[in-house]
């Protein structure tokens, strides 16, 4: 059973924040407001940022901050209960109550808003509204031109409708309810068929939604497209390795060489680079374990990397890999450790 920490296993730099308020936002969705115990100001964050929530068993989950970045005395997240997930959302829904102290990480942003664009298109699928809502607050504050398309199963499944209603009345926010059939919702392909120089696109949502957005924006330049996954794909064996390999075959894998010492370690197909490093006393910070946050990235000096993260740019991938999900296409990777 997961329990959120207020003591125990979490970084010494984590913030002990009080849960001041919990609000129901839609079917299975609660919003949680965190404040300092002394009521003081919190660390500044930018639109698209997230924080880590630490659990007593050492696991960490990331949640996007969805309030106005100009607010300095609270952090707001929204959590969709997922009974088929990894347990974090259930623990939050069942165990986090008002007045409780929770260990919260400092804000980090892997999904920043590019300001100054002539037009911004934001696409939210379900709980993917959370980082985009913070972007909307910022875009409103600076008077930018944007449109948010919010896709959900029904009105009852859409969060923050009361806050977004005035913007919907102005045409800034457009709601799309498909009744559970995406074919009856927003035509993403038609929407993204048009691109104008300087436009910027942001999208976040469940896997099927993300796939639809990715397919639809192939005509957009890479520098104009920004996205954030909130669920990583399962970590599978390296390409070409059958999923039904026997226990003996699990010893197969690839090797990593530590540049500073020359130590060579084997990474079997059932373990990550981060796990193997940790087993040999080489600690690399980890967080999401899904290639979503970049906490565990390290520089590599040689080798052919099979990148499985959802974060690093094409340029960054020429120098860095994420030790939680990256694999090797060849026999050896040399790490700058």
TrEMBL record:
PANTHER family: CARNITINE MONOOXYGENASE REDUCTASE SUBUNIT, NADH OXIDOREDUCTASE HCR
All copies of domain 2Fe-2S ferredoxin-type, residue ranges: 254-337
Protein name: Putative iron-sulfur oxidoreductase subunit
Keyword Secreted: no
Lineage: Bacteria, Pseudomonadati, Pseudomonadota, Betaproteobacteria, Burkholderiales
Molecular function GO labels: 2 iron, 2 sulfur cluster binding; metal ion binding; vanillate monooxygenase activity
Enzyme Commission (EC) number: 1.14.13.82
UniProt keywords, alphabetically: 2Fe-2S, Flavoprotein, Iron, Iron-sulfur, Metal-binding, Oxidoreductase, Plasmid
Domain FAD-binding FR-type per the UniProt entry, residue ranges: 9-114
Stored CDD domains: fer2, PDR_like
Ranges in coiled-coil conformation: none
Native source species: Methylibium petroleiphilum (strain ATCC BAA-1232 / LMG 22953 / PM1)
